[in-house]
Amino acid sequence: MSLDILFYILGGLTIGTALMVVLSKHPVRSVLYLVLTFFLISANYVLMNAQFIAIVNIIVYAGAIMVLFLFVLMLLNLNKENEPKHSPLMTIGAAVAGGGLFLVVVAAMREAILAAPMIDANSEQVGLVENLGKVLFTKYVLPFEVSSILFLAAMVGAVLLAKKEKQTIE
Amino acid sequence: MLLATLFESGVKIEHYMVLATALFVIGVFGVLYRKNAIILLMCIELMLNAVNLLLVAFSTYFGQADGQLFVFFIMVVAAAEATVGLSILVLLYRNTRSTDIRLFNKLKN
């Protein structure tokens, strides 16, 4: 089936762009690769029939959060190449730690025993807005309201951090 | 229709587990390897997205909506975290004129 090939192409591209985020020297290029990674992850969500999460992922991550990162990058003017040289010991250490973590987690997952997938007529509708909204506003209505308080706290914190500097200038 | 063909076409849930693990490990590697604080925050976003991918995969696999709502809440927390983290970073940059994390090891000077 062609979905098989589509998954491998998407997965390979996702891992490739994620690696480029880490390895590219230029911070702006890194941000743009991260936007590409988010779009590819959204494509993976569409492949899994989770349309709502795919759209929210594009709007929130590729839209809002990445614009925030780009704004800060432009504000700090890090465009010039001032990244210090890495020591080779640190590079080897990071690679060994990451590779070791990957091997351990994959080895642990090979032992995992999973239940059979539950695919019926209802499971096609799971990722749609109607079904997610029903569950969100009945079962998860309290976390939903608490998250609004979290946003308020984050907003107050960001304003406070920006305002404090202004007072010291005056 | 699409879903049934996806899981019967040879793509197993294990494939998604390996893909999410690879993305998470790339994020961990980036946090250990890079010295720029903005790239570090981006690697944290990458790790959060790896977890999101696995949550959506299992949510689809078991036909339950709960996993996708957890992804929704993770996105909320990630947005708040990025806002506060970046504003702290701007303040640190005003003090040190750099985003090198090795300069931030002394918070009190």
TrEMBL record, chain B:
Reactions that this protein is recorded to catalyse: a quinone + NADH + 5 H(+)(in) = a quinol + NAD(+) + 4 H(+)(out)
Membrane topology: Multi-pass membrane protein
UniProt main location, coarse: membrane
Domain of life: Bacteria
Function, in words: NDH-1 shuttles electrons from NADH, via FMN and iron-sulfur (Fe-S) centers, to quinones in the respiratory chain. The immediate electron acceptor for the enzyme in this species is believed to be a menaquinone. Couples the redox reaction to proton translocation (for every two electrons transferred, four hydrogen ions are translocated across the cytoplasmic membrane), and thus conserves the redox energy in a proton gradient.
HAMAP family: NDH1_NuoK
Name this protein carries in UniProt: NADH-quinone oxidoreductase subunit K
Record gene name: nuoK
